[in-house]
Amino acid sequence: MLSEILLPTFNHVYDTGVAIPRCVTRNKLTRMGRRTLLKSTAALFGVGGVLASASRPARADHYDSKIHYEPQLDNENLAQLSVQSHKILGDGVKLDFGDHDGYVRLFADDFARVSVTEPGQAEYESPGVANGLDEWDAPTFGAESTSERIVLETESITVDISKDPFGVKFLDADGNVVNEDYLDKGTSGYEGDKPYVYKKTDENEAFYGFGEQPDMGFNQRGEKLENWNTDQYGYGPDSDYVYSSVPFFVGLKDTGAYGIFFDDPYHSVFHMADESDDYYYFLADGGQLTYYFAYGPEVSTVLDRYTDLTGKIDLPPKWGIGLHQSKWEYTAQEIVDTAETYREKEIPLDAMHFDIDYMGGEYNAFTWDPDYYDALQTLNADLPELHSVAVNDPGVGKTTEVNGEPYETYLEGTENDYWVKDADGDTFTAEVWPPEAVWPDFSREEVRSWYASQHDALFDAGIDGVKNDMGEPAVFQKNEKYDWTMPHDNIHGVGEDTIRHEAYHNLYGLDYARAAYEAFEQYKPEKRPFLLNRNLFAGGQRYAAIWTGDNVSSWEHLRLSIPMMLNLSVSGMPFVGCDIGGFVNRPSPELFARWMQAGAFNPYCRNHTDSHRKDELNGPRNQHPWTFGEEVEAISKQYIELRYRLLPYLYNAFKTASETGKPVQQPLMFQFQDDEQTVDIDDQFMFGDDMLVAPVLEKGATTREVYLPEDEQWADFWTDAVHEGGQTITVDAPLDRVPLFVKMDSIIPMREIQQYTGEKPLTMLTLDTYLDEEVSYSFYEDDGETRAHENGAYNVTEFTVSTNPGGVVTFEREHEEQNYDDSELSSYLLKLNRSEAPQKVQAAAAKYTAVDDAETVTETSETYTHSEEQNAVLVHIPADEDNAVRLFFNGQGRGPQGQGKGRGH
Ligand code: GLC
After folding, report:
1. Which helix (H) or strand (E) holds 304?
2. Is 185 exposed, middle or buried (0-12, 13-18, 19+ CB in 10 A)?
């Protein structure tokens, strides 16, 4: 039972500490906050400290009233393209449609691009593309043509192009149609200025991806999805679009998986069989018709290809994947107190966030309020291991002075004419957090570099990471076509590169991330960047992690966070998280406990919440693990600790993601695409390759149904019981338990708990092993912090555990790479789960010593024990043991046991 908690009424506990403005003389830190002064005065006069934002309408009002403009096709006016002549190229074919040109290019034997351009116009590659055409070697292919068709054939796919009407069909090597244009309404092409493509589908086809979509379901068949980056405070399943745009999806059908990336940053719309079960189509409000086709048949191959094109994530610094704590409108003192409370309560924590409150004046980017500056110094002195992340916003206050000092960011940007222009060519000025702001034109390279250079104000103060917010770009005003952003006819770029805002809108956040990424290159070239963006386009993963914006503390939002993050993961963005506990409003104790349990398995793990000064707020001032009573605190701690114990496993999953685009948090269909049951599962996921998580998403639930994919056996992480796959089981899920399963034949590398990543060197690696027949695991290790691994400074060790006839279990390890000299890893704790006691353990002729308890094994090399409590054998193996280590079991084999005992995980 949850303990009864008395929740303080937030407006009685609002900080009334009077901050007396002081002069801070450091460069760029001299911009003492006018806001600080106002705050002090407000507090003195007892007006609740409502400052700059008090003059604005409540944000919720802003967001209720958005215009919804949606580009649509006039079906009477679709194109009727036909190929009049063609020319085979070194990498495909050029098509002549008379009034348009067309290209089908082969990037690889399973990857192609189709474009329809104005005559003579180059094929478009958006800034989302990291490796464009020039970076690829054309595959070997055969080309044939008849009066009716042109056929390009590689080792993996055939592209069959019909000439009249123009249509493209992709077939696999066996001649099965994987994807095909739907020609009943016309051909693909342009309706007016709108590029579009119609494709055939059948009712068995499922669709995933589409970037950031706030839907309750994961499979998007039957849905309409839009891409228009929008600041959607408190969005919900009915919101048409949210913060980021990725016009990419994966189709999954009998022939396997394929992917389509519609590389058009304009407002795009995907109708995924929402009108008919026979076709789907996608269109955009302008731009060029260019899309990429990636053939699987595995979903993983499609994602690998897509991220070869748009980029993979950087391997994050380890502290970036520890727990982060954040809140809008913490007082400066609260930031310090919160961090210290984490340490006192021994709940692991890696980073505190500084929300916009730290900025000087009225939210002026790259300036400091002295109180927050001091708080940062206190934190860095008292808890030097703790990392700090500063929020940044692109709207630069239109003010020449902050805290009585020249506001260099505004002055320099103005002097160099770096701001976005309105339709008349004048600097665009509007309200965002500053009452009057101007926006850097990130489409220009020199503006990005200059903006990057401003970050010394953050880094010199001691900030480690950056959270880029409001880059949709969010603007607090209504417009003719889209609300709460810039007018669609604003101007970006100079000279020949000038484009209207509607063409660039969805790229603004990407280039904003690119500029901030450059700041890390300028100021912290040795360190791996930690950058978090709310607003991205396809390819943004190569600069930043992403979080799903201003969600709500509700059961519905906990539920929808899962498919939302999974679809982002399938959109090439594996470094994804949601605000744990919900941003808008406050969760109940039960909801918080359930969210913390689920969120411990988010790739990016941050507890963040809205200001306590919201009228609609119903709950406590803060949203800390200890806010909701002892039971919830204990549960939160348990799951945060589990995440920290799993750090080696998690970090390895990130390493794989950085190499192949494989999600860290995988939808079940990612690994089990042949199991039809997984197609629609949107309330469970795989955490890495081997752990299945089924979070409890319903109020009051104490059991939960879990589907276990077929052709595998699954061990319950808590009880050790093994279940056959291909069935749905009901498991106990009291408040302190999240259903968690491990695939048999897997090794989960774990370690001791730390209060922050890097607190203690990794000296002993636990190999939590679930053995059926044989399992191998490649363990990657590096310094977790610098870019040295990019030059080879890492180790890879392969572990194999196998069971042989006659009841012998063999452990072997092989060093595959040994270039990370600072590794302190000196031993492995092999934990063979679900095991009886072995008769003996030995490496070659050397016998390991049997001891009585787990603690002695942990402390003493070449020992082992059988733990009744853990239902496991534990063996302490020195890392320099070159011989195979054998566990002898009575000559009768030690196959899986039946229902196991609790192991006190
Ligand atoms: C936006 C962000 C949120 C942040 C707030 C104040 O709403 O999404 O995370 O706390 O702005 O900066």
Report:
1. helix 299-310
2. middle
Distance 550 CA to ligand 1 centre (A): 7
The pair of structure tokens assigned to 321 is 């994947």
CA nearest ligand 1 atom 12, residue: 356
Cβ distance 11 to 613 under 8 Å? yes
User: In degrees rounded to 5, what are phi and psi of residue 58?
Assistant: -55, 145
Label residue 659 exposed, middle or buried (CB < 10 Å: 0-12, 13-18, 19+).
middle
Q: Where are the domains of the chain?
A: 85-310, 665-742, 761-888
Of the listed ranges 524-533, 698-707, 739-748, 888-897, the least confidently predicted one is 888-897
Distance CA 846, CA 840 (A): 11
State if residue 356 touches ligand 1 by the CB under 6 angstroms criterion: yes
- The neighbour count for residue 824, using CB atoms within 10 Å, is 11
DSSP 318-334: GGGGSEEE--TT--HHH
- Evaluate if residue 894 carries a pLDDT over 80: no
Indicate if the alpha-carbon torsion angle 185, 190, 192, 193 is positive or negative: positive
Confidence of residue 615 (pLDDT cuts 50, 70, 90): confident
Using the predicted structure, report yes or no on whether residue 901 has a pLDDT greater than 50: no
| Cα separation, 502 vs 109, whole angstroms | 35
Q: What is 197-252 written as a DSSP string?
A: EEEE--TT-EEEE-SS---S-S--TTEEEEE-----TT--TT-S--S-B--EEEEE
Please give the distance, rounded to the nearest whole angstrom, from the Cα atom of residue 511 to the centre of ligand 1.
19
From the options 2.60.40.1180, 2.120.10.30, 2.160.10.10, 2.40.70.10, give the CATH code of 761-888: 2.60.40.1180
Q: Which residue has the higher pLDDT, 32 or 795?
A: 795
Quick check: 284 and 266 in contact, CB under 8 A? yes
Report the chain's mean pLDDT, rounded to a whole number.
92
Q: How far apart are CA 12 and CA 6, in angstroms?
A: 14
Fold of the domain spanning 665-742: Immunoglobulin-like (2.60.40)
CATH topology (fold) of 85-310 = Immunoglobulin-like (2.60.40)
pTM of the model: 0.93
Q: What is the pLDDT of residues 741-759, one digit of tens each?
A: 999 999 999 999 999 999 9
**Can you give the C-alpha Rg of the chain in angstroms?**
28
Rounded (10°) CA dihedral 471, 581, 330, 434: 20
Which atom of ligand 1 lies at the shortest distance from residue 610's CA?
10
Q: Which residues are catalytic?
A: 469, 472, 550
The model's confidence at residue 831, banded by pLDDT at 50, 70 and 90, is: very high
pLDDT surpasses 60 at 605:
yes
Six token digits for residue 742: 């491990």
Strands (E), 408-566: 437-438, 465-468, 491-492, 499-500, 531-533, 545-547
Q: Which residues contact 542 (CB under 8 A, 6 or more apart)?
A: 130, 310, 311, 312, 313, 314
Of 147, 146, 139, 135, which Cα lies nearest the Cα of 104? Answer: 139
Ligand 1 lined by 391 (C-beta under 6 Å): yes
pLDDT > 70 in the chain, percent: 91
Residue carrying structure tokens 């302008």: 286
Binding site membership of 534 for ligand 1 (Cβ less than 6 Å): yes
Ligand 1 atom having least distance to the Cα of 393:
12
